[in-house]
Amino acid sequence: MRAYRVLTVLLVLASSIMAIHPSAVAQSLKERNEALLVRLQQVHRLSETQMAAVREIFSASGYLGEGNPAITQHPLTPTG
Length: 80
Known about the structure:
mainly alpha
């Protein structure tokens, strides 16, 4: 019975999170890019010198990034 309650709470929580409009959780381009750059450095084990070069490329552009998550559709995802 306890497992059923926990599962119910988790499902309600997941549904609530998915129902939030993307603009309510949207971050600025700068914040999204910073998260991207941190992941990039961790995954590819880039040095600080390499990251400085990548950051320079990103800072030279006013729109470079992963795209607008509020409108981007990825056809191979469950929501796409």
